[in-house]
Amino acid sequence: MTWGLYLHVPWCRRRCPYCAFYVEAAHDVPWDDFADALLAEYALRTDSVAGLPHTVFFGGGTPSRMPAPVLARILAGIERAPGTEVTAECNPEDCTQEWVDGAIAAGITRVSLGMQTFQPAFARLLNRACSVPDARQTAERVATSGFTSWSVDLMFALPNQTLEQLDADLDAIEAIGVPHVSLYGLTYEPGTPFTRARDNGTFTEATDDLWRDMYDHIVKRLRNMGLQRYEVSNFAKPGHRSAHNQLYWSDKPYLGIGPSAHGYLPTGERYHNAPNVTVYLQGGDPTELRESPNAEQAATDALVSGLRGVEGIDLAALAHRHGIEPQSAAVDRLQREGLIHRDNSRIALTDAGFPVCDAICGHLSDRLVPVGGPSKGPRTTT
Ligand code: SF4
Question: How far apart are CA 340 and CA 228, in angstroms?
């Protein structure tokens, strides 16, 4: 059985003004106690899966704040399948040569750099802790240090950002030769300083048209650099796709450990850990919520995650597993409109469909019917 392991490291030096994740802004972190707690939770959960993990992903938060010897201790406690991809999300300021060497020795094979922008003015606006020249230097260090692969996070639709400014970020990605890019269109989450600034008129939010123009422009430029879209927001040169993220889009199980992590078990059960590091460090079962989705919800989850990937989803397999499929009339209509293409029972988004992926997923999810059910008309109105 192929499954992945996600470890959530919740600490950040400071909270970014657009971020609504569960994070703890702290200077002193009890790393050894945290490593013990992670390994204890891992031991608690491994009965739920068979065999060894095929991917491991340290996400956060800021996993690169974790000292390399602590990373090594955790990874020594996690037996892995041969050739397992082991990724750590990193903020550029943490990636000293010493940390990079220690991370590689510990077993990290891939890093995902939280660059976000190469423009000094936007880096200040986003409250990034690393200067742009230092971040570039980090990218060059990571590129030449012996990781199997590496990635850069790029944000777009920033406050008042123009297409020309976005182009300058893409020029930097091209100049550095980045092999994988994860894209984040800025969203204004409730309660963040960015949302307050938008609401009081300090920031101008990108219009839907500008957002779409930027997305299309990024896809085109990255394609010209040899970075092919393999998911709505992820682009890679050949051989550089993230194996861990592909598990999420292909309906494969994963264990999540750490405060606020969530998991998806082979039985279809989902769980969510409590977002509280103090309680987490006290040990015990951190599960806050368990749910076993019904067939309709499970089919919706599989459809929504599957359609995000460039390979799309096999509707016959969906029907076989869950006894549910989207109405053929709805699929036919999306195909006529050029938003999806079909290859036997597999459907996938077209270039025109990717920018409106959420709307297409919503449309099909609302038209799921039992296999052999009605072929016309929505199940619910939208
Ligand atoms: S570094 Fe990432 S997780 Fe931490 S506050 Fe900033 S955006 Fe949020």
Answer: 18
**pLDDT of 235-289, one tens digit each?**
999 999 999 999 999 999 999 999 999 999 999 999 999 999 999 999 999 999 9
Assess contact for 126 and 157: CB atoms under 8 A. Answer: no
Report d(CA 14, CA 23) in Å as an integer.
Answer: 9
| Tokens matching residue 175 | 């100049």
119-131 per-position pLDDT tens digit: 889 998 998 776 7
Q: Edge to edge, what strands does the sheet with 110-116 contain?
A: 228-231, 234-236, 180-185, 149-156, 110-116, 85-90, 55-60, 4-9, 254-257, 262-264, 270-273, 287-291
Task: Take residue 268 and report the two structure tokens written for it.
Answer: 């279809």
Sketch out the chain's domains with CATH numbers.
Answer: 4-248 (3.20.20.70), 295-370 (1.10.10.920)
Work out the angle between the directed axes of helices 315-322 and 295-308 (0-180°, nearest 10).
160
90 lines ligand 1 (CB under 6 A): no
CA of 59 to the centre of ligand 1 (A): 10
Give this prediction's pTM: 0.93
| Paired strand residues for 56 | 5, 86
Ligand 1 pocket residue status of 12, Cβ below 6 Å = yes
Residue with the nearest Cα to atom 6 of ligand 1?
16
